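Running this now, will post back.
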Amino acid sequence: LQAENSTYGDFLRIDVDEAYLNLNHKTLIYFTTLFKLYEAEFYVKADDDIYLRPDRLSSLISRTRKSPRTYLGCLKKGAVFTNPKLKWFEPKSWLLGSEYFLHAYGPIYSLSYDVVNILNAIPKGRLRMFLNEDVTVGAWMLAFDVSHEMSWPLCQNNCTPTAVAVWDMPTCAGLCKPDVQMKVLHDNPACSGRVPA
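Update: finished.
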């Protein structure tokens, strides 16, 4: 990775402790750092264990939208995890009620320029953090009165001609076995867009 970054400069390094319990802070720092470095219509957060078609992603996010404040993703609702033995247990569940509000799954979503501008303007330490990053970002989006946009191409379990992101939702928060599945997916003409020989 260091050699590639030295050659192409295509990695962004941010100063944050790498830990699951710090994912909310990492995500916030990621978006605000991008905002300070690059002016873009949308800022995308994508995990490294999904199969992503960047060419299709750019087409998806370049579409005209009704609102300048847009939250684009594979949206969901569901019961709040109140059992401490479950992976996605939420210690602050008492603040949420019995069902989560509409929010994007964590492996991939995108925030428009205006949304990240709001995030960037809020003083450090002023945003509520839940345990889970997807819920935390979703809560911020409610406060910012954004337009929630469900994007099915980001919610694919298999390759299709319109799939932007492929992952094993909702079984895993990404591909269950990315070290094996990435190569298989990339070799699949339906994923890579290559015509078989």
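Helices lie at 2-8, 23-37, 54-61, 113-121, 133-143, 178-187, 189-192. More later if anyone needs it.
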